[in-house]
Amino acid sequence: MPDSAGKPSNIETRLFINGDFVPSISGQTFDVINPATEQLAASVYEASPEDVDRAVKAAKDAFPAWAALDASKRGDFILKLAEAIEQNLEEIGYLEAVTMGKPYLKPPYNWVGHHTVEGLKFFASLATAVAGETSLNTNGFVNLSFRQPYGVTAAIIPWNGPSFMLCNKIGPSLVAGNTMVLKTSEKSPLSALTIARLCQEIGLPKGVLNILSGFGRPCGEALAKHMDVRKISFTGSVPTGKAIKKAAAESNLKNVTLELGGKSPLVIFDDADLEQAIPAAAVSAVVNSGQGCILSTRLYVHEKIFDRFLDGLKVAMTKIGGEVNDPTMEATSRGPQADKIQFDRIMGYLQYAKDQKLDIVLGGGRAREPGYFIDPTIIVNAPEYSRVMKEEIFGPVVCVNSFKDEEDVIRRSNDSIFGLYASIFTRDISRALRIAMQFEAGSVAINATSPLTAFDMPMGGWKQSGDGREFSRRAWESWMEQKTVYIKL
Ligand code: NAD
C-alpha cells in the first residue's frame, strides 16, 4: 500500500441523520488531532441534545417499515453493507490512522478490518435465525413466545476499534428489526461517516441508522436519557458504563448492555510451550498500541521459567512493537496512542512506577516526537495492590509477576474488579480446564490469548467488566423484547 493510500478527496465531517449528511443545529465543531503528527486531522460537527432529538425522531419514523420487512431482506442490506465496507477498507483504514493512530494493513495488525467485514457478514447470516418457542405443557393451551424488536435503539462506542465496534452494534440490532442512533467517540469520528456514506450507496432506508459525532456530555448523555430510546448498548470504560446505567434508570429504564474494561491475567506454567507463549504474550501487549479491553496486561509466570520467559518477552515485544511510525505509512507496524489524553494517562502510570521504584525492565517512556508514541514497557514484580496491577493502563505496558503454586495464582488472577478475559499456557489439559473453571472472566483462552475471539461465541465481562453479551449465534437476543402468547384451545 503506498503511503496515504485511501485518503478521501473530501473528508466527511457532518452528522448522518435520516439518510442525509447535515451540519449540527448549532453549527458547532470540534477538532480531531492526528496523534502521529499532532496536527489537525479534521474539524467535525458536534451533535447537541437537539441533534439527538432529531436523530431519534428519524429512527422512530423509520422503525415500522424496517421492522415489517422480511428478516432475510434486512439480512441482505447488512450483507451489502459488509461488502461495501470491504471495498472501502483503505479509506476506513486511512481515517482511523489519522484520528486514533491505528496502522492499517500489516499483519498481525490488520485484524480489525477483517473482523469488521467478517463480523458484519456473520450478523447478516443470523437474520432468519431469530425464533421464539412453543409449549404444550399447560393442559388445554398452546403457548408461544415471540421475539420482537425494541424499536429505537442506541449505541455509544469507544475509539479503539471504531469501525469494528460500530459493526458489532449495528449488525445484530438492525437484523433484529430495530432502528438505531449511534454515537462515535470524539477521538475517532471519521471512519463511521464513510460507513454512513456506504449506507446511502447501498440504499439502506432513511433513518434506519443515524450516526452522530460528539462528546459524552452532552451528546452521549442525551442518548442515554432519551425517553424514546428503548435499548442502549455501550462499549467503553467502567465509570461511563455506570453513568449510562444511572441515566437509563433515571429516565425510562431502557434496557442496557455494557462492554467495559479489563485487566486480564495471563498465567504461564513451567510446562508451557514458550515458543508459543512468548510471541502470544507480546502480541497481546502491543497490538493496537496496547489499547484493547481484552489484552493481557497482568502476566503471572511460574518461578522456574521466569527469567527465560522474561528474556524472551523483552526480545519479542521489542521486535513486534518496538518500531513506531506514522500509521498511514506502509511499513508501520505500530502507531501512537490515540490522543494526548491517553498519552498523558499512560505516562502518568509510568511516572507512578518510577516514583514507587518499581522494576521497569523494558521501555518506560516516550518513544519519539512529534506524536504520542510510547515504548513497549515491562514492569516486573509490582506489588499486587499497586495501581499498575489494579487499574487499566490502556497502553503497551505489561506487569510480569512470578508465582509458585496454582491456588495462589488463581486467587491473584481473580483479585480484580474486572473479569473480561483470562488466559493460561500449560501442557496439562486437566490443569488448564480446572483453572478455566475457576477464572472469574467472560472469556478464557487456553494455550492462546487475546485478541483472540470468535464471532459465534458470546463475548462479555464478569464483575465490573460488563453486563450482557455480544456476538454468538444468538447475538440478536439482547436486541429483542420477548412476548408470551397464551392460546386457549
Ligand atoms: P469512555 O468510557 O471514556 O468513552 C466511551 C464512549 O462513551 C465515547 O463515545 C464517549 O464519548 C462516551 N461517553 C463518555 N462519557 C459519557 C457519558 N457520561 N454518557 C454517555 N456517553 C459517554 O471509554 P474510551 O476511553 O472511549 O474507551 C476505552 C475504554 O473502553 C476502556 O476502558 C476499554 O477497556 C473499554 N473497551 C471495552 C471493550 C469491550 O468489549 N468490553 C472494547 C473496547 C474498549
UniProtKB/TrEMBL annotation:
Catalytic activity, as annotated: an aldehyde + NAD(+) + H2O = a carboxylate + NADH + 2 H(+)
Entry annotation: catalytic residues: 259
First and last residue of the signal peptide: none
Any one GO MF annotation of this record: aldehyde dehydrogenase (NAD+) activity
Family annotation (Gene3D superfamilies): Aldehyde Dehydrogenase, Chain A, domain 1, Aldehyde Dehydrogenase, Chain A, domain 2
Keyword Oxidoreductase included in the entry's annotation: yes
SUPFAM superfamilies membership: ALDH-like
EC number from the UniProt entry: 1.2.1.3
Domain of life, per lineage: Eukaryota
Pfam families in alphabetical order: Aldedh (PF00171)
Keywords: Oxidoreductase
Descriptive protein name: aldehyde dehydrogenase (NAD(+))
Species in which this protein is naturally found: Exophiala bonariae
